[in-house]
Amino acid sequence: LKTSVKAFQYDLNPDVPKAEVQKLFFDTHAVVRLLEENFTTSQSEGMVSVLVKMTNSNMDVIYSDMITKVQQEIMLQRVMSQIATVKKDMVILEKSEFSTLLAENEVQLLQLKVQLADEMQKVQSDKMLDMNLEKSRVKELRAEHEKKLLETRTEIMEMTAEQERYLTQTNMKIDTEVAGLKTMLESHKLDTIKYLASVFTCLTVVLGFYRIWM
């Protein structure tokens, strides 16, 4: 917004009639009589004539710099009008600057909102990535744990099977040894029975001979 302030230009020449030559502002006759005390009459009249011209010229200058009350009121109205125009232009300028500042603030606010949304999206993406990585890590740990558990179970089953085989072999060995011992006992039992039978037979024979002998 461009505001052009015009320079205050007023007509300062009042509508006052200039002093006429015949108009006198002091008593010329009294001044002539006063000057005649030291000068001649012609000299005194010449000096008074010069004083009259100088006075009239000075009064013309004074009147030219003066204004009437009506002109003063007109000038005051013009000045007030110019002040009102300047105030109006200043208000328009302030509104325009405020609108511009408001628009800039809105743009900055929009940029901040976009930046905040980007940051939030980035944080959410990072969080989702971390969650996915954590899920993958948990899955890997779970898979590794299940693998170790399966390996441990397999080892336990292998150890159990080996122990069962060892127990089976041991039981078979024990059964074999027990069977051998039973066979040996049966053999010893038969041998003992045979031995006792032979002993009893011998005793019977001896007793028979003893009875016969007696």
Radius of gyration from CA coordinates: 75 Å
Shape: rod-shaped
| Tally of contiguous helical segments | 3
What does the main sheet amount to? none
Distance between the first and last residues' Cα: 173 Å
Secondary-structure element order, as H and E? HHH
Percent helix: over 70%
Strand content: under 5%
Which runs of at least 5 residues are low in confidence (pLDDT < 50)?
1-21
Total number of β-strand segments? 0
Mean pLDDT: 79
Structural class, please? mainly alpha
Present the secondary structure layout.
Layout: H1 28-35, H2 41-64, H3 69-213
Helix pairs in contact: 1-2
Question: Would you mind describing this structure in some detail?
Answer:
The protein has a domain at 11-67. It is built from three helices and no strands. It is mainly alpha-helical and 214 residues long. The protein is 83% helix and 0% strand. Helix 1 (28-35) crosses helix 2 (41-64). Belongs to the CCDC90 family.
Keywords, please?
rod-shaped; disordered N terminus; 214 residues; 3 helices; mainly alpha
Describe what is shown at a glance.
The chain crosses the membrane at residues 192-213. With 214 residues, this protein is mainly alpha-helical.
